[in-house]
Amino acid sequence: MKTDLVGKADMSDDEWRIVEQNDLYEVCRSGKVRRVGKSVLMTRRLNTGYDYVSLSKASKVTSVTIHRLVCIAFHGQPDGRVVNHIDGDKTNNHAENLEWVTYGQNNKHAFDTGLKKPTDSRGERNGRAKLTNEAVAEIRDNPHSLTGVALARKFKVTPQLVSLVRQGKSWPEGFQKTRSM
């Protein structure tokens, strides 16, 4: 966790707005947060790369990401949407760099800008896979050697999964002949 102490600075030129969820604090267009009329708060960075602050009121402390505070203050309530950093920089919390988008739009933006890379998690590369490529090949190559129930017991899966593999409805066809001979 990275810590940044901003401290007192000349902030008279920046527009400040009250934080809706805690009226003891205000946020400015550039992404600074302060107690009303006081010093700018210390920001911390989550391991996800987003900056956040801790706000307190009536002995209750709440941690809030800065990009959400800025977006709510300068672009209104989210209405079920998420914040998108237009330039892709999670630390650029200027109001002009933030917008409300759907979760799908945010993911598309991340892929389009290279922030997220597509992964191929089909077949046994999927962390939740119950079968190996070799097991799938054995099930498909020997459709009548063992019953679905016997194969299910052998591979510790359900007979329904064995049936789906045999029908080609589960596991991509490319994994059919991957068994080493």
How would the blueprint of this fold be written?
Blueprint: E1 3-4, E2 16-18, E3 25-28, E4 33-35, E5 43-45, E6 51-57, E7 60-65, H1 66-75, E8 82-85, E9 98-101, H2 103-112, H3 133-141, H4 148-155, H5 159-167
Protein model, in words:
The chain has 181 residues and is of the alpha+beta class. It folds into 2 domains: 3-112, Alpha-Beta Complex (Homing Intron 3 (I-Ppo) Encoded Endonuclease, Chain A), CATH 3.90.75.20; 123-175, no CATH class. 25% of the residues lie in helices and 20% in strands. It is built from 5 helices and 9 strands. A 4-stranded antiparallel beta sheet has the order 1-5-6-7. Helix 4 (148-155) packs across helix 5. The longest helix has 10 residues, at 66-75. The two termini are 50 Å apart.
Main sheet properties: 4 strands, antiparallel
Q: What is the top-level CATH class of the largest domain?
A: Alpha Beta
Identify low-pLDDT runs. Answer: 1-11, 176-181
On the 0 to 100 scale, the average pLDDT is 86
- Helix and strand sequence: EEEEEEEHEEHHHH
Number of strands: 9
By secondary-structure content and strand pairing, the structural class works out as alpha+beta
Radius of gyration over C-alpha positions, nearest whole angstrom: 26 Å
Helical amount? 25-40%
Number of helices: 5
Instruction: Based on the coordinates given, report the CATH architecture of the largest domain.
Output: Alpha-Beta Complex
